[in-house]
Amino acid sequence: MNKKPVSGNSHKASAQPRFHQSARELQAFGTVTSMQPLQLDEPVRLEMSEQLNQLLADTMTLRDLYKKSHWQVAGPTFYQLHLLFDKHFGEQAELVDTIAERIQLLGGVAIAMAPDVAEQTKVERPPIDREEPPVQLSRLLEAHELILRECHEFAKLADDAGDDGGRKIPQEQEDHQDHQADGQHQLELNV
Q1: What confidence tier does 125 reach under pLDDT thresholds 50, 70, 90?
Q2: Which residues of 79-99 are buried (b: 16+ CB within 10 A; e: fewer)?
Q3: What's the pTM?
Q4: Can you tell me the distance from the alpha carbon of 179 to that of 187, in angstroms, rounded to the nearest whole number?
Q5: Positive or negative, the Cα torsion across 50, 175, 92, 136?
Q6: Please, what are the domains in the chain?
Q7: What's the sign of the alpha-carbon dihedral 95, 99, 100, 102?
Q8: In whole angstroms, what is the distance from residue 163 CA to residue 170 CA?
Q9: Backbone φ, ψ for residue 17 (5° rounding)
Q10: What is the DSSP letter of 75?
Q11: Most CB contacts within 10 A, which of 22, 78, 132, 173?
Protein backbone atom coordinates (compact mmCIF):
# COMPACT_ATOMS: atom_id res chain seq x y z
CA MET A 1 0.00 0.00 0.00
CA ASN A 2 1.51 3.30 -1.11
CA LYS A 3 1.39 6.32 1.13
CA LYS A 4 0.40 9.61 -0.42
CA PRO A 5 3.07 12.26 -0.15
CA VAL A 6 2.26 15.14 2.15
CA SER A 7 1.80 18.32 0.17
CA GLY A 8 3.93 21.28 1.16
CA ASN A 9 0.92 23.57 1.08
CA SER A 10 -1.29 21.66 3.52
CA HIS A 11 -1.95 23.59 6.73
CA LYS A 12 -3.29 22.50 10.05
CA ALA A 13 -6.56 24.12 11.02
CA SER A 14 -6.07 26.48 13.91
CA ALA A 15 -8.52 27.94 16.37
CA GLN A 16 -6.11 30.75 17.16
CA PRO A 17 -7.40 34.19 16.24
CA ARG A 18 -5.53 36.15 13.64
CA PHE A 19 -5.22 39.64 15.05
CA HIS A 20 -5.12 42.87 13.05
CA GLN A 21 -6.82 41.41 9.99
CA SER A 22 -8.62 43.59 7.50
CA ALA A 23 -10.27 43.12 4.16
CA ARG A 24 -12.59 44.99 1.86
CA GLU A 25 -16.27 45.13 2.79
CA LEU A 26 -18.42 42.42 1.27
CA GLN A 27 -21.44 44.68 0.76
CA ALA A 28 -22.05 48.37 1.30
CA PHE A 29 -24.73 49.50 3.73
CA GLY A 30 -27.76 50.77 1.83
CA THR A 31 -27.48 48.22 -0.97
CA VAL A 32 -29.14 44.88 -1.68
CA THR A 33 -27.73 41.84 -3.38
CA SER A 34 -29.55 40.01 -6.13
CA MET A 35 -28.57 36.60 -4.78
CA GLN A 36 -31.72 36.17 -2.69
CA PRO A 37 -34.48 33.83 -3.94
CA LEU A 38 -37.27 36.35 -3.38
CA GLN A 39 -39.71 37.30 -6.11
CA LEU A 40 -39.32 41.00 -5.31
CA ASP A 41 -37.66 43.46 -7.66
CA GLU A 42 -34.43 45.06 -6.51
CA PRO A 43 -35.88 48.59 -6.09
CA VAL A 44 -38.62 47.15 -3.84
CA ARG A 45 -36.11 45.18 -1.76
CA LEU A 46 -33.93 48.30 -1.48
CA GLU A 47 -36.83 50.47 -0.28
CA MET A 48 -38.01 47.81 2.16
CA SER A 49 -34.47 47.36 3.52
CA GLU A 50 -34.13 51.12 4.05
CA GLN A 51 -37.47 51.31 5.88
CA LEU A 52 -36.66 48.23 7.96
CA ASN A 53 -33.26 49.68 8.90
CA GLN A 54 -35.02 52.78 10.22
CA LEU A 55 -37.42 50.57 12.17
CA LEU A 56 -34.44 48.53 13.38
CA ALA A 57 -32.52 51.61 14.56
CA ASP A 58 -35.57 52.88 16.45
CA THR A 59 -36.35 49.47 17.95
CA MET A 60 -32.72 49.08 19.07
CA THR A 61 -32.94 52.51 20.69
CA LEU A 62 -36.18 51.58 22.44
CA ARG A 63 -34.60 48.32 23.61
CA ASP A 64 -31.67 50.26 25.08
CA LEU A 65 -34.01 52.84 26.59
CA TYR A 66 -35.70 49.98 28.45
CA LYS A 67 -32.33 48.80 29.79
CA LYS A 68 -31.41 52.36 30.84
CA SER A 69 -34.74 52.65 32.64
CA HIS A 70 -34.21 49.21 34.23
CA TRP A 71 -30.83 50.26 35.60
CA GLN A 72 -31.84 53.75 36.70
CA VAL A 73 -35.38 53.39 38.02
CA ALA A 74 -35.89 54.62 41.59
CA GLY A 75 -38.68 55.28 44.03
CA PRO A 76 -41.55 53.40 45.64
CA THR A 77 -42.39 51.50 42.43
CA PHE A 78 -38.77 50.45 41.90
CA TYR A 79 -39.23 46.70 42.09
CA GLN A 80 -42.26 46.47 39.80
CA LEU A 81 -40.77 48.82 37.19
CA HIS A 82 -37.34 47.22 37.42
CA LEU A 83 -38.83 43.83 36.51
CA LEU A 84 -41.17 45.24 33.88
CA PHE A 85 -38.43 47.22 32.13
CA ASP A 86 -36.21 44.14 32.00
CA LYS A 87 -39.02 42.01 30.57
CA HIS A 88 -39.76 44.57 27.87
CA PHE A 89 -36.04 44.87 27.10
CA GLY A 90 -35.99 41.14 26.33
CA GLU A 91 -39.06 41.41 24.10
CA GLN A 92 -37.51 44.29 22.17
CA ALA A 93 -34.29 42.30 21.75
CA GLU A 94 -36.29 39.53 20.06
CA LEU A 95 -37.92 42.06 17.73
CA VAL A 96 -34.51 43.51 16.85
CA ASP A 97 -33.34 40.07 15.77
CA THR A 98 -36.45 39.45 13.68
CA ILE A 99 -36.11 42.78 11.85
CA ALA A 100 -32.38 42.32 11.20
CA GLU A 101 -32.94 38.84 9.81
CA ARG A 102 -35.64 40.13 7.45
CA ILE A 103 -33.21 42.78 6.15
CA GLN A 104 -30.68 40.04 5.50
CA LEU A 105 -33.31 37.96 3.69
CA LEU A 106 -34.07 40.94 1.45
CA GLY A 107 -30.37 41.04 0.54
CA GLY A 108 -29.65 44.15 2.59
CA VAL A 109 -27.21 44.97 5.35
CA ALA A 110 -28.73 45.45 8.81
CA ILE A 111 -27.55 48.37 10.91
CA ALA A 112 -25.72 46.90 13.89
CA MET A 113 -23.41 49.20 15.83
CA ALA A 114 -24.50 51.68 18.51
CA PRO A 115 -22.85 54.75 16.92
CA ASP A 116 -24.58 54.03 13.61
CA VAL A 117 -27.89 53.44 15.37
CA ALA A 118 -27.48 56.73 17.28
CA GLU A 119 -27.01 58.61 13.99
CA GLN A 120 -30.06 57.06 12.34
CA THR A 121 -32.66 56.75 15.10
CA LYS A 122 -35.59 59.13 15.28
CA VAL A 123 -36.13 58.37 18.98
CA GLU A 124 -35.10 61.34 21.10
CA ARG A 125 -31.92 60.71 23.05
CA PRO A 126 -32.48 60.76 26.82
CA PRO A 127 -30.07 62.49 29.18
CA ILE A 128 -27.34 60.43 30.79
CA ASP A 129 -28.83 61.36 34.19
CA ARG A 130 -31.43 59.41 36.18
CA GLU A 131 -34.99 60.60 35.58
CA GLU A 132 -38.17 60.15 37.59
CA PRO A 133 -40.32 57.13 36.67
CA PRO A 134 -43.11 59.22 35.09
CA VAL A 135 -40.54 60.79 32.76
CA GLN A 136 -39.06 57.38 31.95
CA LEU A 137 -42.52 56.05 31.14
CA SER A 138 -43.29 59.09 28.99
CA ARG A 139 -40.10 58.59 26.97
CA LEU A 140 -40.91 54.92 26.45
CA LEU A 141 -44.47 55.71 25.33
CA GLU A 142 -43.25 58.31 22.83
CA ALA A 143 -40.78 55.81 21.38
CA HIS A 144 -43.54 53.19 21.08
CA GLU A 145 -45.78 55.69 19.27
CA LEU A 146 -43.02 56.53 16.80
CA ILE A 147 -42.35 52.86 16.08
CA LEU A 148 -46.06 52.14 15.63
CA ARG A 149 -46.27 54.91 12.99
CA GLU A 150 -43.28 53.37 11.20
CA CYS A 151 -44.93 49.94 11.34
CA HIS A 152 -48.04 51.29 9.65
CA GLU A 153 -45.92 52.85 6.88
CA PHE A 154 -43.95 49.66 6.38
CA ALA A 155 -47.10 47.50 6.36
CA LYS A 156 -48.49 49.59 3.50
CA LEU A 157 -45.22 49.25 1.58
CA ALA A 158 -45.18 45.47 2.12
CA ASP A 159 -48.83 45.19 1.05
CA ASP A 160 -48.26 47.27 -2.08
CA ALA A 161 -45.21 45.13 -2.98
CA GLY A 162 -47.07 41.87 -2.34
CA ASP A 163 -44.51 40.85 0.27
CA ASP A 164 -46.32 38.51 2.65
CA GLY A 165 -43.13 37.81 4.63
CA GLY A 166 -42.51 41.52 5.07
CA ARG A 167 -46.07 42.09 6.27
CA LYS A 168 -45.43 39.82 9.27
CA ILE A 169 -42.75 42.16 10.66
CA PRO A 170 -44.98 45.19 11.29
CA GLN A 171 -47.78 42.97 12.59
CA GLU A 172 -45.48 41.36 15.14
CA GLN A 173 -44.04 44.77 16.02
CA GLU A 174 -47.50 46.32 16.39
CA ASP A 175 -48.64 43.51 18.68
CA HIS A 176 -45.62 43.94 20.99
CA GLN A 177 -45.57 47.75 20.84
CA ASP A 178 -49.30 48.06 21.54
CA HIS A 179 -49.07 45.61 24.45
CA GLN A 180 -46.06 47.33 25.99
CA ALA A 181 -47.43 50.83 25.40
CA ASP A 182 -50.75 49.93 27.02
CA GLY A 183 -48.91 48.63 30.07
CA GLN A 184 -46.77 51.77 30.22
CA HIS A 185 -49.83 53.99 29.96
CA GLN A 186 -51.54 52.19 32.83
CA LEU A 187 -48.40 52.53 34.95
CA GLU A 188 -48.07 56.21 34.06
CA LEU A 189 -51.56 56.80 35.44
CA ASN A 190 -50.62 55.11 38.71
CA VAL A 191 -47.12 56.55 39.20
Answers
A1: very high
A2: eebbebbeebbeebbebbebb
A3: 0.83
A4: 13
A5: positive
A6: 42-190 (1.20.1260.10)
A7: positive
A8: 12
A9: -70, 150
A10: S
A11: 173
